[in-house]
Amino acid sequence: MIDVATFHQNIKKNIINNCYVLCGNDEQTIKECVKSLVNKFVDKDFIDLNYMEFDGNSLESFEPVINACQTLPFMSDKKVVLVYRASFIEDDKGENSKISADKAFNNFCEYIGTIPDHCILIIYDVFKGKRDKPGKRINKLSKSSCVVKVDKLKGQQLENKIKVFFENRDKQIGRIELKAFCSVMDENNLSVVENEVEKLCCFTDGRDITKEDIKALFLKSSDDDIFDLVNPISNKRLKEALEVLNELIYRGEKTNHILNMIERQFTLLFKVKLGVNAKKSKEVIMKEVNVRSDYAFDMLLSQGKKFTLRQLQHAIELCINAEQKMKTSTVDEKTELELLIINAIAG
C-alpha cells in the first residue's frame, strides 16, 4: 500500500502497474490520480476508444469490465478502464443494488491475475466516514494490485495544492495568507476547499488577498466575537472588554449565550494549558479539546499564555456562579456579566 506522493513519483519514474485500487475520503484527489494515468497513456484524440468508465454500484455483472479490459486499444499501446465508487471492495457491504458485493469482489480478485499487458484497470472507493480505514478486502488486494491510500493532504502538500487552485484562477496569494487560509480549511474534500478558493477570489476581485479577508469569510463570528471579548480580559484591559460586551448586547446577542461562550472559552484555555504543561503534543491536545483548525488552536495557545492555571480555574468558577445567579434570581444579567469581567480581570 502506497500514498499519493509515492504514486505520482512512480508514474514519473515509469513504474506502472496494470491494476490500481484507490481508496480514501477525498474523491477529487482520487480522480486526479486517475487523470494522471489517463493523461500519461491515453491520447486525447482517441480517449473515447481507449478509456472506459463503469459505475461500481450499477454493475449487473463484472463481465462488461472484463470485456473492456480484454479489447485491444485503438492506435495506442495502452487503454485505461475505470470502475468508480466500487463499494464492493469495502468489508461487510452485503448486497449492491445490482450485483452482490461478495460476487463482484470475488470476480475482481479472480481477474486481477489475468489483466492483459495493454490494459490498466483502476478501481476506486470513497470512504463514507473521516475515520474509515482500509479493511480486510483492500488489504487482501494489496498483494495482487497497487493499492493507493488517499489521505487528507497536510502541511506543505496541502499548501502547494491550494496554491494551484488560486493560480488556475490567475489569483496570487502571499505565503502568510496561504498558510492562514489552509489553517481554517477543515474539509477532507478538496472539492469543497476549491469552492472556498473561488469564494475568496470573488470576494477579493481586483485586489490582493489579506488575512482580514480570510478572517471575515471563514472564521465563525461567534468564536471571533468571544475571542475579541476574552482577549482584552487576558490583557487586563477592563474598558475595552466592557465595550466589546456592550457591543455584543447591542447587536442582539443573548446574555446567557455570551456567558456560555465565555465559560466555554475559559474551559478551552484551561484544558490547552493543562495539556501544554503535561508536555502533550499539539495533535493530542487538539483532539482532546475538539479543535480542528491550527489557526484556532494557535489563538488559544497565545491567549492561554496570559493566564495562570489558577486564574483560569477562578474564571470558570466565576462563570458557574454567574450562571446560577442568572437562573435562580432576578439579577440584572448585563450587570452580572460586567461583574464577571471585572472579577476575572482582578483574578
UniProtKB/TrEMBL annotation:
Q: List residues of the DNA polymerase III delta subunit-like C-terminal domain.
A: 224-343
One GO term (biological process): DNA-templated DNA replication
Q: Name one Pfam family in it.
A: DNA_pol3_delta
Primary enzyme class: transferase
- According to its UniProt record, the EC number is 2.7.7.7
Catalytic activity reads: DNA(n) + a 2'-deoxyribonucleoside 5'-triphosphate = DNA(n+1) + diphosphate
> Where does it sit, as one GO cellular component term?
DNA polymerase III complex
**Which keywords does the record carry?**
DNA replication, DNA-directed DNA polymerase, Nucleotidyltransferase, Transferase
Question: Known InterPro entries for this protein?
Answer: DNA_pol3_clamp-load_cplx_C, DNA_pol3_delta-like_C, DNA_pol3_delta_N, DNA_polIII_delta, P-loop_NTPase
Alphabetically, the GO molecular function entries are: DNA binding; DNA-directed DNA polymerase activity
**Domain DNA polymerase III delta N-terminal: residue ranges:** 20-150
Q: Does the keyword Transmembrane apply?
A: no
Alphabetical list of SUPFAM superfamilies matching this protein: P-loop containing nucleoside triphosphate hydrolases, post-AAA+ oligomerization domain-like
Which family is it part of? Belongs to the DNA polymerase HolA subunit family.
Output the PANTHER family linked to this UniProt entry: DNA POLYMERASE III SUBUNIT DELTA
Question: What is the protein's given name?
Answer: DNA polymerase III subunit delta
